[in-house]
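Let's practice the habit of predicting before peeking. Look at the sequence and jot down your guess about where helices and strands might fall. Then scroll down.
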Amino acid sequence: MSEVIEALHIYDEHNRPILSHIYTARPLSAQQLLPLFHAHPLPRPSLIYLPNTSPPTLVFSLVHSNLLFLLTSSSELEPLLALEFLHRVVDVLEEFVGSPLLAHKVESSYDVVAQLLNEMCDAGAVSTTESNALRDLVEVEGWIGKLLGGINIPGKSGFSSTPSTSNMSGISSTGALAANTPALPWRRANVRHTSNELYVDIVETLSVTLAPSGRPLAAFANGTIAFTSKISGVPDLLLNLSTPSGKHNLESVMELPVFHPCVRLARWREKPGELSFVPPDGRFVLAGYEVDLLPFTSGKVGTTSSSNLKLPVQLEVKTSLGPTGSDFEVRLFITKVSGQGNSSLPGSTSRGSHLGGRGGSGFGGLGSQAGTSSTPALEDLVVTIPLPNDVRNLPEIRASRGDTTYNPGENNLEWHIPAKEAVVGGATLRCTVAGPLAEEEDFEGNGFRLDGRYDYDESAYQSTPTPTEKVVEKPDEQSDARKVAQNKILMPTSTAVSFSVKGWLASGIKVESLVVDTRKSRGLGEGVKPYKGVKYLTISRGGVEVRC
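Done guessing? Here is the structure:
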């Protein structure tokens, strides 16, 4: 059989195997596999080939929450299939065992984990990986059942005076419910919620590179549409997306889209911007996309400009300042960005109006509620300045706003600006760098060298004083020029900024409407109007980089 998964091993933060699940064949044990995996130098790739084992083995690895997942196969296996299976295992374990995924949680819930791994992969072939379908297959005991333990009380599944009759009635009722429920692998049957809610969260992560002049070299936004469905029955939903230039331009803006299996691709191809789907129960990733924030105009290369790129934060870095060129300056400009418009959906109140930050004189403006699509909120603003290894110290750091942290071990300087000070305007950070000690700088004021030697002037002990000529001191221009050249290599070569903006997307994509099709939906109930909400979030984790 080709393309089979032979084993899955999980190790804790101390490289101790906490779980080994064998699917087929006789693979390497967890103790045998770990030294062979660690024999490869860092950074280790996700796929490692071990030719000296019998038989030769492929090892796929994933590190999550300090846990190491190793998947082995001695036959040809599609790498993306194995890596995606590892990610699905992590997602499923987090949902069933709890997030964050810790070693003691896996060990204490081994019965549930073993059932999940058996259902997700059958004899080495990937099977059911949807968490909603697994909930119908894997029984998870609740806290009430754990509390009662083995006590036989009426109402428990194991207590009955006539077990044959009760068991048969249970089987028949389950079969009747399953017969009336459509076969959807991503949605479990008989979903019931007391409060019907639908939430849409669009998150974009920025990756921008700017030249020293401020001209953008590359600018991309990776977007994720997360959907939360807490609605009874089997709803059929229609989500409409649009851009500032209109819905017709959405296909050219959203590049490389990927969708959850529940999305009807034919509807998207026919009408780009319309997502028709039956959602899984709970939170899931509905779609992903990429946006080029610097599209070429008229098909000509080099026609992009910074005017096309709208960012809430702009940086300007100047190096080699001061008489000896030992200073550098970072100027930060905070600009106001327009939100996505009204975030409320038809027939409901938007969740964005109830979340978000506090009102005040921050990014959202005075007296307004920050964090909504009408008043975006800038938070977590951090400027990171990497420094060369030759920098010995920063004797002087002056910031007009916020606080600074110098990390000598990591060779960087972080400039933190809290949300209350992140108002529209400019801020300046000026620093002085100090490099390695030069030969003439090795002396202390008392004449002693730092290495313990002592230099003295023998002429001071002569009996007859010798006449000395007065030398007129002149500024040593060559020495200053040499210091400027030495300090030039101590200047930073780039600066990165991290931030998050609630209520704003760099691509301008927004949700127009979210409609529940009552004709296609089943089990929703008459007159039920679910609560709908939408949120927008843009994140930059050092993704905006300015080269010096």
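How did you do? The first strand starts at residue 7 and ends at 11.
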